[in-house]
Each structure stands twice: as structure tokens, then as C-alpha cells.
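Saturday, quiet lab. Running sequence design on the C-alpha cells for the scaffold JK sent over.
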């Protein structure tokens, strides 16, 4: 593993309130989001949440005089939230950070229905978090317009993501297939860094606060938020505005960001709750399906091979689309197949089934070879070792147990020598391992999916701002949009890139840079 950034090149950002924790006796109103990782309790004796919030803001670098001046009450609190971010996962936290860096005087609140922030980050990459990839291109994504994806990625590419995390004290290293992981090999390192930076910038992180709906109220928005037994409904009566809404009154926000994710891994809080909110605000939803999900097979061929992995090319073919090809490791399991090549192929199987097309999934066990090249290779082995048995020869090309299962399935004698192998048997064998059928009957569903295909169409957002074309003041980032990347850190890169574009534009928007 080679490190892309020196470990000692940058020390972790010091977080506010870290040294205050032992002295925080008798605190009036501690900031929410206690459970998770480095949840910093930023409150001290006699200090209200909003006094602390504005105290933190005063330490930020100055903003151009007169460019932005939030309305203040005599108590020192803003009358509204400037930016309400719904969903405090990867895209939501990053949006909050980028917006706060550009506009430190803004009051930014990130709501998340889960009690613990960043659960999906923590389970990603086998608990190590594949942050991005060495090489990211529009060809690594499916769903919406590749030109829109290209523009968003160009604004904040892979190298900038590496630098962003270096600034947060998280250095990365490269592994197979260009995947970039934190040097700590712990996803918690990534989540901790994002949470700490958001808090350092004065972003309010509200875990356990589920936004049920968003209502447009003139030029602003009212958010219906449920917290434990308390539900604050949408209402037009917003005269009594302060840091916290009282029961019966709603949170009010100048701008809203939907960063709720899709439907994958619903136990982490990604349960599709953002889609009805988007629809209520005028958006359409492209039907969703799981993506990056293991496939379930019928029959008995796969079960005895459980635990065996080998490189393959997976081909998904249906009459309504061009065949898609995915090269990489495939893992046989007790329920079917998994592994990177299968995960990448799964969204194409699901999209074909969504359209009710007949779909065939085949596996080339000799990736990079066609029939002519495979036959030439076989002829060479036969010439050099004519007395070698069929099962031994095949085991030089694919795992021995898979070779044994293939020969049994095809009804070919395993101990016949290559010199005595009939031509029709050789052709049947090569045709079989070059296009082995996978009888897919289903996938393991959203509960095992790493991403969601479908969502809000990219045509309904401005590619240079991530702002809604349907509802002024609304922004959409991350997985809620109809973009899903292949495995290898690409979905996280989409989260960082779309968050950067939105965060930058939110600051310009609120500062009066755009009308």
C-alpha cells in the first residue's frame, strides 16, 4: 500500500469545546448528537446553545462587510435557520462544511433522523470507508446525464477530495483497483473528521430529529420535525421565531438541502424518506431499485462453491439495452453470488426487471478471452501436455472446485486425457466457461445494497449549483439524485462533489451573489 499523502504533513484540526468537556457542569442546553463518534459537547455552565453558536462564529475568518448580515434578536439568536440540511450523512455533512467555510456567519442546522450520525459511513468498505478512487470519470456512473455528472465531478475531483481529507487530518492510501482508504483503515476516522470539522465551523448537528415534511412558506420553508414524542408540525404561524421552535411551531429555513440518501441499507437511516419531500416540492422520482447488491440464484450449482472467489467478466443482456460488462472478482455464496463484478452488474439486472424485460446474466470465467483465443490456449496446453487429465487442465484456468463442478454440470469425464478429449466435448467446455449462465431469481434487496439506482432526475437540478429547477431555494445532493456509481469509492466521490457544488452556491446565494 502506498501512501498518497505524508502522515505527518498535517495535524488533525483542533476542535472547539474539546477542552471544555470536563468543566461542563450545570450546562444549560448542550448541543444534540451525543451518540456516535467524536461527539463534542459544546456547552458550558450558563451558556445557551445559540450564544455558544455565535461565539464559535466569531472565531471564523471575517466575511466581506455588508455581504451578509443575518437578522438577530435581542437575545443574540437568528430569527430563522439560514440553511437546513436534511440528512447528516456523507453528502449532508460535506455540504454543511463547504457552505460554512464560505459563509461562516450563516446558521446551518443538519437534521438526521438516526440517533447516531454517519452509520452508513461506518459500515462502508467493510468498516474501512473507501473514500474515493485514484481515477474517477463519468463512465464510472450510471443514471442521469453523463455531461451533468462530468460537470459536477470537474468542480471537485478525486485529487481535491484527497486534499480535503488531508486538511481534516485524514491521509489516504491506495489499494487494489485504485481504491483510496484512510491510513487508519477505520471508517470511524472519516466520520470523526467530518463531524469535528462541521462542529468547528459552528454547524448544529441534530441527530434524532426526523424531518417529516417541508412546506414552502412564501420565500422560505417550514420544516415539520419529529423528536422523540415531540412533533413540530408545518404551520403558517411563524411569528414567534427563535433558536428553537416551541411545540406547535415549525422550524423555518431560508434554504433547504435534501441529502437524505436513497433506500439502501435502511437500518442506517437511509430509508427513502427524502423522496416524498422532493415530490411535495415539485420533483418527480425515477423508480428506484437496489444497486451494488448481491444476487440470489436458483438451483444447486452455487451452494457447494460457497466461499470461492475468482476473476470473471459478468455480462448482463436484455433486449431493451446494450449488454453491460463488468470485470472483477466474483464470490460464490450459499445464496448465490457476490463480489465486485456482481455488485456492479446488479443494478443493470434490476433496471431490466423494472422494465419487465427478459434478462440473462452470464459469466465469462476467462475474462479477456473469446472462443478463438480460449481454443488456441487449450490447443497449446494439449500440445505441451497431451496426457494431462481434463480436470487438472481446467484447474489451471479456474479454481479446482469450480472446475470440478463445471465438468459435473456439463456431464464431461474429469479424468479423460486431453489427447483423448473429443472435439465436441472441448467445444462444449469452452463455450460453457466463456458464457456460464447465472439463474438469477432476485437480489438480496435494499437491506444489503450499497447504493440506490433511480431518484430525482438530474434534469431537474442545475448542474452548476445543484439547485432545484422546480423549487427555488431547494438544493439536492448525493444519493437522492438519479446517479449511482460502480463499486470502488465512486458513490462517496459523488457525495463530496455534489456537496461542494451545492455548498459553494448556497454561500453565494445567501450572500447575494446570485438572484
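Result came back. Writing it out in full:
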Amino acid at each position: 500500500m502506498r501512501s498518497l499523502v505524508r502522515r505527518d504533513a498535517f495535524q488533525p484540526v483542533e476542535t472547539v469545546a474539546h477542552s471544555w468537556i470536563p468543566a461542563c457542569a450545570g450546562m444549560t442546553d448542550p448541543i444534540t448528537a451525543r451518540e456516535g463518534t467524536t461527539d463534542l459537547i459544546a456547552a458550558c455552565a450558563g451558556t445557551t446553545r445559540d450564544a455558544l453558536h455565535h461565539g464559535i462564529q466569531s472565531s471564523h475568518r471575517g466575511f466581506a462587510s455588508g455581504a451578509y448580515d443575518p437578522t438577530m434578536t435581542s437575545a443574540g439568536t437568528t430569527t430563522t435557520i439560514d440553511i437546513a440540511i436534511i440528512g447528516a450523512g456523507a453528502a449532508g455533512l460535506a455540504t454543511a462544511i463547504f457552505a460554512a467555510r464560505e459563509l461562516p456567519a450563516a446558521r446551518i442546522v443538519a437534521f438526521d433522523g438516526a440517533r447516531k450520525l454517519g452509520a452508513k459511513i461506518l459500515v462502508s468498505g467493510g468498516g474501512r470507508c473507501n473514500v474515493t478512487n485514484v481515477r474517477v470519470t463519468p463512465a464510472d456512473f450510471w443514471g442521469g446525464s453523463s455531461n451533468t455528472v462530468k460537470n459536477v465531478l470537474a468542480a471537485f475531483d478525486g485529487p481535491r477530495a484527497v486534499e480535503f481529507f488531508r486538511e481534516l487530518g485524514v491521509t489516504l492510501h491506495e489499494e487494489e483497483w485504485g481504491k483510496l482508504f484512510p491510513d487508519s483503515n477505520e471508517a470511524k476516522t472519516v466520520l470523526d473528521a467530518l463531524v469535528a470539522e462541521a462542529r468547528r465551523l459552528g454547524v448544529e448537528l441534530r441527530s434524532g430529529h426526523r424531518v417529516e415534511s417541508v412546506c414552502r412558506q412564501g420565500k422560505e420553508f417550514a420544516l415539520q420535525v419529529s423528536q422523540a414524542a415531540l412533533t413540530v408540525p408545518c404551520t403558517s404561524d411563524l411569528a414567534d421565531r427563535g433558536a428553537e421552535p416551541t411545540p406547535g411551531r415549525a422550524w423555518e429555513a431560508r434554504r433547504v438541502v435534501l441529502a437524505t440518501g436513497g433506500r439502501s441499507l435502511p437500518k442506517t437511516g437511509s430509508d427513502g424518506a427524502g423522496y416524498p419531500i422532493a415530490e411535495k416540492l415539485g420533483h418527480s422520482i425515477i423508480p428506484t431499485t437496489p444497486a451494488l447488491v448481491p444476487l440470489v440464484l436458483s438451483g444447486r450449482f452455487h451452494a457447494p462453491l460457497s466461499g470461492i472467489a475468482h476473476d470473471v467478466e459478468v455480462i448482463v443482456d436484455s433486449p431493451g439495452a446494450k449488454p453491460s460488462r463488468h470485470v472483477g472478482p466474483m464470490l460464490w455464496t450459499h445464496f448465490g453470488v457476490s463480489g465486485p463484478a456482481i455488485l456492479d452488474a446488479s443494478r443493470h439486472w434490476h433496471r431490466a426487471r423494472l422494465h419487465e424485460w427478459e434478462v440473462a446474466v452470464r459469466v465469462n470465467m476467462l475474462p479477456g478471452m473469446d472462443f478463438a483465443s480460449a481454443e488456441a490456449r487449450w490447443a497449446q496446453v494439449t500440445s505441451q501436455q497431451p496426457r494431462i487429465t481434463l480436470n487438472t487442465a481446467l484447474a489451471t484456468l479456474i479454481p479446482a472446485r469450480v472446475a470440478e463442478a463445471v465438468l459435473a454440470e456439463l456431464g464431461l469425464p474429469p479424468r479423460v486425457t486431453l489427447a483423448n478429449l473429443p472435439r465436441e466435448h472441448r467445444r462444449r467446455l469452452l463455450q460453457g466457461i466463456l458464457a456460464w449462465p447465472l439463474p438469477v431469481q432476485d437480489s438480496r434487496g435494499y437491506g444489503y445494497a450499497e447504493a440506490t439506482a433511480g431518484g430525482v432526475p438530474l434534469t431537474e437540478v442545475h448542474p452548476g449549483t445543484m439547485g432545484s429547477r422546480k423549487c427555488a431555494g431547494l438544493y439536492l445532493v448525493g444519493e437522492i439524485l438519479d446517479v449511482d456509481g460502480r463499486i470502488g469509492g465512486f458513490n462517496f466521490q459523488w457525495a463530496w462533489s455534489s456537496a461542494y457544488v451545492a455548498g459553494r452556491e448556497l454561500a453565494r446565494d445567501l450572500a447575494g451573489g446570485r438572484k
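Notes for JK: The first strand starts at residue 2 and ends at 3. The two ends are 48 Å apart (CA to CA). Ask whether to fix the surface positions before the next round.
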